[in-house]
């Protein structure tokens, strides 16, 4: 089962051309090129700490701004995760974690439920991190949650540095993905729901 949890997604619109491949049972190696330096840095964290191998190549309309590139990458990663999960048999399904980084503390909680929902309780004290719009962090997780079919809650308890606040969101989500997508040895091939479907 483990070696089968891989997927590729190619998505092309007038705004972006995105190609994503994932291996849920990887080692956290990635090859990422979105044209947006800060976003690449965040996606490398997402791969490294989820242990999901990711190859991501995006050509977006960056002459407008980073919005379409970030959102469409989130859509494609979400679709790839959902596709790789298939019927979601045997997964741990739930996880939550408080992740510290220097002065910042951020919680992520996940239910790999098949029901897309994002609760976003994070605010930034500046509109930009370098040239990156801080509001795009939410856009990314909204696209990811919708397309992966996950319920995702992200709560920043406190923090001063906006780079740290963004980075803890990605790292915390990475760690809950790692736990929740893992195969639960006690329920092997069963779907973890009394409904029998996720
Ligand atoms: Mn950093």
Q: Overall mean pLDDT score? A: 96
Tell me about the largest β-sheet: 4 strands, mixed
Radius of gyration: 16 Å
> Into which percentage range does the β-strand content fall?
25-35%
| Oligomer category | single chain
Element-by-element helix/strand order: EEEHEHEEEEEHEH
Helix percentage range: 25-40%
Query: Quick one: CATH class?
Result: Alpha Beta
Number of E strands: 10
- The SS-based structural class is alpha+beta
> Number of helical segments?
4
Shape: globular
Order of strands across the main sheet: 1-2-4-3
* The CATH superfamily title: Imidazole glycerol phosphate dehydratase, domain 1
What molecules are bound to this protein? manganese (II) ion
Low-pLDDT regions: none
- CATH architecture field: 2-Layer Sandwich
End-to-end C-alpha gap: 18 Å
Return the domain count: 1
CATH topology: Ribosomal Protein S5, domain 2
Brief digest:
The chain is α+β, with helices and mostly antiparallel strands and 198 residues long.
Q: What this model shows, in words?
A:
The protein has a single domain, classed as 2-Layer Sandwich (Ribosomal Protein S5, domain 2), CATH 3.30.230.40. Helices cover 34% and strands 30% of the residues. It contains 4 helices and 10 strands, in the order βββαβαβββββαβα. The strands form 3 sheets. Strands 1-2-4-3 form a 4-stranded mixed beta sheet, covered by helices on one side. The protein has a 4-stranded mixed beta sheet with strand order 5-6-10-7, covered by helices on one side. It has a two-stranded antiparallel ribbon with strand order 8-9. Helix 2 (67-85) runs parallel beside helix 3. The longest helix has 20 residues, at 162-181. The chain is globular, with a radius of gyration of 16 Å. The model has no long low-confidence stretch (mean pLDDT 96). It binds manganese (II) ion. Manganese (II) ion binds at residues 41, 163, 167.
């Amino acid at each position: 089962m483990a070696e089968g949890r891989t997927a590729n997604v190619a998505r092309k619109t007038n705004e972006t051309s995105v190609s994503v491949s994932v291996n849920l049972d990887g080692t956290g190696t990635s090859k990422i090129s979105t044209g947006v330096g800060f976003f690449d840095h965040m996606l490398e964290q997402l791969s490294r700490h989820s242990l999901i191998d990711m190859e991501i190549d995006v050509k977006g309309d960056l002459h407008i701004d980073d919005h379409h590139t970030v959102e469409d990458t989130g859509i494609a990663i979400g679709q790839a995760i959902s596709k790789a999960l298939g019927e979601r048999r045997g997964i741990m399904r739930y996880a939550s974690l408080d992740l510290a980084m220097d002065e910042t503390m951020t919680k992520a909680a996940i239910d790999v439920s098949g029901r897309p929902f994002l609760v976003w309780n994070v605010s930034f004290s500046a509109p930009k991190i370098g040239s990156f719009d801080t509001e795009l962090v939410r856009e990314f997780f909204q696209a990811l949650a919708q397309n992966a079919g996950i319920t995702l809650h992200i709560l920043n308890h406190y923090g001063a540095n906006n780079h740290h606040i963004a980075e803890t969101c990605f790292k915390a989500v990475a760690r809950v993905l790692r736990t929740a997508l893992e195969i639960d040895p006690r329920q092997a091939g069963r779907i973890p729901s009394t409904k029998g479907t996720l």
